[in-house]
Amino acid sequence: MSLQYAFAFVDEIRTHTMNEDDILVSYDVTALFTNVPLDETIKILVNKAFTDDWFNKTYGLNLQQDQLARVLETATTNQLFQFNGQLYQQTDGVAMGSPLGPLMANVFMCHLEEKLTRDGLMPSCTRGTSMIPWLECPALMLLLSSLVP
Asked: Residue 3, Cα to own-chain centre: how many angstroms?
């Protein structure tokens, strides 16, 4: 979380009225970067980037969707990393330390949230910063786990 978002979170949480039995819950996705489905995430990112030709207009470029997809594939797939002096190849997901890791993880998680909201499956208590009753938390975790095994 960046410092900017941390301050925004603090500002937002100050305005909430809390009941005595409310619990603030923060979910962490285990090994998120290395579990990001790259092919799916690249498709999501390219589709969003080319909605209304936003990417080209914003950056003064003239790329085609397949060109951006190839650039992202080259930058994120089959990456090498070193552990204990030994080289390994990342077979799926984003390699830890990759500059594109936060972007790819955020794109995928936002897509999941949008899908759940669009399909009416997102519990209203989890949108944005919220206080949620303890019993609703496991249901959300099971739902997310069923979407991405």
From this structure: 18
